[in-house]
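User: Watch each token:
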Amino acid sequence: MTPKIRKLIRLAIEVAVIAVLFLLFLRLLDWEQFRGYLLTITPRIILTVLLIHLALHTLGTVQWMVILREAGLRHGFLRVFWARVSGYAITYLTPSMYFGGEPVRAMLLKDDRATYKRIAATIVLDKYIELFTKLPLIVVGFAFVVLLLRVELPFVILAGGLIAVFCGFFVFVSSRLFGGGPFIRRLAKGLLRPLVRIRPRWAVRALRVATEFEHDIALIIRRRSAFYLAMGIGILFSAVEVFQTWYILAVLGHGSFVHPFVIYATIVVQGLISILPGNIGGMEGVHLFIFNVLGIGTALSLIYTVILRIGQMSFVFLGLVNLFISRLFRTARGRAGSLPGERR
């Protein structure tokens, strides 16, 4: 299959998903109720959501800084913050909910004091902590689904199975990382076996990179107290995300202690079905489903997603602006460095 055909197939899937979602909303949406919710949105609500997103990115920055310092990399808060926001912007614009902007983070943080491999090791560990510190509150949300809500058994089995898989993977990886031994090297060897027969030199290089990466990870997590601190910040990050859901529902007249946790738990499904940039369609579809299961309503589902995306897109815009400005400065420095007679 040629790249052109793959692009056409992907475009067709994107158009089909958006079209189906649009028709579904047209069929189910109560437009009068939606207009009523729309009129309740005030600049104060939007400002509060933006401040919550700022708090989330601040916590994410502090979490990454803890890991960077363990790797011997000391950077100022603002530099790490903007590198993270720019990476977030690129991730948001890729067909993946959680991955895509990591090379941008490494590029913006790279200097003469560290190699890309060392920075990449901190990013991988930061992403690992970011994803798996969501599990405690996801489990709480699932517990509320099972204990307090009347849902079909197949849904409970599917959701419970997904959460069990993620929990098992987290425990397995954590035990391997802290247990020592060449876990990453052995894993790389197994994955590279087909390549050994075709391109042995490439396989040797890849194995060497994996070994160096494993060494960097071991250096970063040698102090468990710092790792646990980063994990604690990650859990606080997730708690703020749940608070954001509670706040939006509360200002729209549906304050509940249970519903924010249940809605938050659906990020597992969103991550699995994300095939469009910004998870367009995936987020809306999952919210539409879970809001109807909870009996909240389709109109509230749409307005909740709109408010959430306003906060997200604001920081996507800031991240892209920072990336553009950084490229301008890099280009200017490159041109200045290439001027004849500069170094004398």
Q: What stands out?
A: The chain has one domain: 51-328.
